């Protein structure tokens, strides 16, 4: 809906019965579960609801008290009822069972906030980190669910083996899940969660070998070991306040689940190591670019307090004039050394790293994330201040568009501007509704359009003139015919 | 519509987890939806089709206002679910544990049997259909009347058709799929923790938690009392999306924003909200609790929708009186002269 157009709202006011507008604005408000049942029910398993043809977004303005309307509403409701009364069930053979051990890793060190030194990270980074019990992205303290099997395809980006633990620690070779991972797997019907009654030593008997331990579990009766938990129990156990050990806040979980349902890979954010190619090559390139840009600013000193802004003289190009007109300092994005990175405060702090679903993804050594996401509760926070936004953006890695560095041309310039020099996604959650917003560090001062104007005026003007002439010719011919 | 009156029904348990209010029982959800115009937002994944975001499943996340309204109408109680679960699970003794696991296993077996049965039926149906098609191609010219009569009575006849077919064609081999006598049974993950509830619920046993209501509660309670359905307003930049009926069926009429009685409202808010609301065909509704003179009856300046409003009011006067202080509401529309 164009807001700046004065005429169209009037038209839409008059067309009060036009449903298409509502569909556009209102479309995802409340989904009609009848559609869902019609998707679910295979051939043969007919339900009342799916037998009717259903269109999306078909809604009424208000109740007009007809039986037809009530009937349609009722069938929508009963379809919803039917879909949502489903009980999660697992095939007995390949059920994925998880056990809740909230205090298993309680004595592990919390995830370090610091960034591994660039120097040590290159060669011996992983080894030294291991010996210091701080593997990046492990979050061992928060891992509360151990699962028995490690075969599911869902686990390519979910769960970690706590490798820093002692060798003879029971549960060391198990895959441990973070609360959001466990809850999501339960919710989608992949995981069956159990509350252990016995200790972990009995649930996962001494680690002789993976096969033997599996057999041992089968020998024991289920109810001797624990209680199968419900979805409600899982929510009660895993959802907590921010920063609580082994829990996650509901809005963060909702964002996590929303992204996972769409197919993204999501991991909790870890401080990113600086990108390897940056320090040497591209920095020098940027320094070179800055040196170009800084030239006009160096002219500042030569401004006198009076007289014309553009010094009188002979100018053969506009560039020099524009450079003299550039009085106002513009923001220049620049990569920060790791020591100067700010520590943003919650909630405007990167919490998730998100990857598009590519085929190759190693959860222990993930590639640089495609998106960095902070999660904000719509009701408890307001629009971020400049400081909050600034430190949020500065904490994300320096990532200008790399492929077309320095190329000119309108398309490239706007693409570069839109992408920004740093960017972060903020997910705003209002009681279950999520909106994603992308904030980017923009720098219009980096794109000097007058350089294009100076370089290409003739070509452009020539083009336009050519068209004009072409048009005239066409008309002429027409008249001649 | 009301299948159960509130007297017969035990209080709806709203579980409070980390300051959020969740409903897990579909029966409760539908009950509130039908009788107390609470719709709210489904926030869970639907296990039948977990890779989509269009259709959401249980749990239902209530706004704090909704939880508060339900508590004040004595329909629901709010339970701190984390402590409830920890206490109950710790106190769950072996006997009840065994019984519970047993009952789950039985349910799982039943479900698996049901699934196998329905699969068999599907297979039979499909076989029957393919047979039928062949038969049709042979005999469609000979007995068209018979076919048409079959088609007229479509739905329930279908199961019979296969039987008839098999009776009439004894040469076809018996279906190879048989019901297995003993199945291992599905492992079930129940949706609610009803197994943890004491068998004889005593009121006051679980300490009910309080609801932290936002400042905009009076407006919500007022509109809810008038029979409107409310959804969180994030999509239209307001406090509440106000629907005249179930959002399953109706478009929302208003974008509601709460203001304090003495709060200054900037013109920019009014113009911006009015324009936004109008361009998505909603009224921009502002309202707040009356502080000075509680006798003022609420009157709407909105004349365009007054008819629909009265209708809604008459249709669904809800049990229990108003649960909030009197509220005045105003509705703006962008005139676009």
Automatic annotation (TrEMBL), chain A:
Protein name: tRNA-splicing endonuclease subunit Sen54 N-terminal domain-containing protein
One Pfam family recorded for the sequence: tRNA_int_end_N2
Any one Gene Ontology cellular component term annotated for this protein: tRNA-intron endonuclease complex
Compositionally skewed regions (Basic and acidic residues) per UniProt: 55-67
Phylogenetic placement of the source organism: Eukaryota, Fungi, Dikarya, Ascomycota, Pezizomycotina
Transmembrane segments: none
Ranges in a coiled coil: none
InterPro entries named in the record: tRNA_splic_suSen54 (IPR024337), tRNA_splic_suSen54_N (IPR024336)
Organism: Xylaria bambusicola
Stretches the record annotates as Disordered: 39-72, 110-132, 459-481
Location of the tRNA-splicing endonuclease subunit Sen54 N-terminal domain: 124-195
UniProt keyword tRNA processing, yes or no: yes
A GO biological process held by the record: tRNA-type intron splice site recognition and cleavage
Biased composition (Polar residues): 121-132
Similarity annotation: Belongs to the SEN54 family.
Protein keywords: tRNA processing
From TrEMBL, chain B:
Stretch list, region Disordered: 118-171, 295-322
Cross-referenced Pfam families: tRNA_int_endo, TSEN34_N
GO cellular component: tRNA-intron endonuclease complex
Every TSEN34 N-terminal domain range: 12-81
Domain of life of the native organism: Eukaryota
Classification via Gene3D superfamilies: 3.40.1350.10
Function: Constitutes one of the two catalytic subunit of the tRNA-splicing endonuclease complex, a complex responsible for identification and cleavage of the splice sites in pre-tRNA. It cleaves pre-tRNA at the 5'- and 3'-splice sites to release the intron. The products are an intron and two tRNA half-molecules bearing 2',3'-cyclic phosphate and 5'-OH termini. There are no conserved sequences at the splice sites, but the intron is invariably located at the same site in the gene, placing the splice sites an invariant distance from the constant structural features of the tRNA body.
Recorded family membership: Belongs to the tRNA-intron endonuclease family.
Protein's name in the database: tRNA-splicing endonuclease subunit Sen34
Natural source organism: Xylaria bambusicola
């Amino acid at each position: 809906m164009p807001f700046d157009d004065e005429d169209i709202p009037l038209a839409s006011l008059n067309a009060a019965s036009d449903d298409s507008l509502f569909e556009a604005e209102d479309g995802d408000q409340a989904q009609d579960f009848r559609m869902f049942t019609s998707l679910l029910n295979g051939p043969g398993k007919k339900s009342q609801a799916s037998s009717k043809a259903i269109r999306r977004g078909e809604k009424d303005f208000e109740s007009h008290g007809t039986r037809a309307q009530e009937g349609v509403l009722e069938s929508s409701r009963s379809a919803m009822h039917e879909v949502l009364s489903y009980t999660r069930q697992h095939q007995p053979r390949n059920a994925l069972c998880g056990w809740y051990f909230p205090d298993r890793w309680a004595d592990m060190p919390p995830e370090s906030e610091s960034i591994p030194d660039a120097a040590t990270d290159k060669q011996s980074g992983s080894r030294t980190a291991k010996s210091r019990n701080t593997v990046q992205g492990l979050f061992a303290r928060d891992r509360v669910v151990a699962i028995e099997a490690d075969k599911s395809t869902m686990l390519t980006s979910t769960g970690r083996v706590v490798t820093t633990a002692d060798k003879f620690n029971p549960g060391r070779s198990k895959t441990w899940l973070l609360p959001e991972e466990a809850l999501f797997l339960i919710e989608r019907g992949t995981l069956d969660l159990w509350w252990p009654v016995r200790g972990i030593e009995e649930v996962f008997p001494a680690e002789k070998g993976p096969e033997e331990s599996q057999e041992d579990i089968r020998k024991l009766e289920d109810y001797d070991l624990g209680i199968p938990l419900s979805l409600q129990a899982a929510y009660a156990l895993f959802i907590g306040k921010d920063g609580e050990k082994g829990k996650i806040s509901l809005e963060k979980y909702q964002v996590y689940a929303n992204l996972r349902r769409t197919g993204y890979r999501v991991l909790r954010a870890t401080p990113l190591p600086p990108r390897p190619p940056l320090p040497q090559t591209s920095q020098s390139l940027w320094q070179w670019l800055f040196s170009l840009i800084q030239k006009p600013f160096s002219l500042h000193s030569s401004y006198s307090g009076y007289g014309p802004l553009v010094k009188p003289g002979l100018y053969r190009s506009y560039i020099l004039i524009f450079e003299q007109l550039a009085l106002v300092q513009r923001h220049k994005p620049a990569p920060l050394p790791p020591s100067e990175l700010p520590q943003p405060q919650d909630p405007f702090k990167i919490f998730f790293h998100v990857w598009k679903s590519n085929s190759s993804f190693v959860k222990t050594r993930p590639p640089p994330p495609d998106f960095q996401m902070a999660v904000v509760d719509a009701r408890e926070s307001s629009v971020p201040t400049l400081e909050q936004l600034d430190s949020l953006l500065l904490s994300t890695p320096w990532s200008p568009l790399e492929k077309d560095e320095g190329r000119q041309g309108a398309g490239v310039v706007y693409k570069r501007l839109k992408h920004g020099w740093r960017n972060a996604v903020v997910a705003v959650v209002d009681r279950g509704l999520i909106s994603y917003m992308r904030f980017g560090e923009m720098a219009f001062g980096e794109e000097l359009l007058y350089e294009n104007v100076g370089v290409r005026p003739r070509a452009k003007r020539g083009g336009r003139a050519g068209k004009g002439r072409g048009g005239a010719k066409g008309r002429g011919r027409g008249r001649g015919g | 519509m009301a299948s159960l009156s509130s007297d017969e029904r035990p209080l709806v348990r709203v579980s409070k987890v980390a300051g959020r209010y969740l409903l897990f029982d579909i029966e409760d959800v539908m009950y509130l939806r039908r009788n107390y115009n609470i719709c709210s937002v489904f926030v869970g994944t639907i296990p039948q089709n977990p890779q989509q975001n269009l259709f959401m499943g249980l749990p239902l996340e209530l706004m704090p206002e909704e939880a508060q309204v339900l508590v004040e109408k004595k329909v629901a109680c709010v339970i701190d679910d984390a402590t409830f679960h920890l206490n109950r699970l710790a106190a769950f003794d072996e006997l009840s544990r065994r019984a519970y696991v047993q009952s789950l296993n039985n349910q799982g077996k039943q479900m698996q049997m049901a699934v196998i049965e329905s699969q068999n039926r599907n297979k039979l149906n499909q076989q029957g259909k393919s047979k039928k098609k062949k038969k049709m191609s042979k005999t469609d010219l000979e007995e068209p009347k018979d076919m048409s009569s079959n088609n007229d009575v479509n739905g329930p006849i279908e199961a019979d058709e296969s039987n008839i077919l098999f009776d009439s064609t004894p040469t076809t081999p018996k279906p190879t799929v048989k019901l297995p006598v003993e199945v291992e049974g599905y492992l079930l993950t129940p949706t609610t923790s009803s197994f943890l509830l004491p068998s004889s619920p005593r009121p006051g046993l679980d300490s009910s938690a309080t609801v932290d209501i936002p400042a905009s509660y009076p407006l919500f309670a007022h509109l809810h009392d008038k029979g409107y359905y409310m959804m969180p307003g994030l999509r239209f930049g307001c406090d509440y999306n106000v629907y005249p009926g179930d959002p399953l069926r109706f478009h929302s009429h208003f974008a509601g924003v709460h203001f304090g009685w003495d709060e200054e409202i900037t013109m920019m808010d009014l113009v911006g909200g009015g324009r936004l609301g109008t361009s998505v065909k909603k009224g921009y509704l502002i309202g707040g609790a009356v502080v000075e003179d509680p006798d003022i009856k609420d009157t709407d300046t909105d004349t365009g929708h007054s008819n629909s409003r009265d209708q809604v009011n008459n249709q669904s006067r809800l049990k229990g009186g108003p649960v909030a202080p009197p509220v005045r509401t105003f509705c703006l529309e962008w005139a676009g002269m």
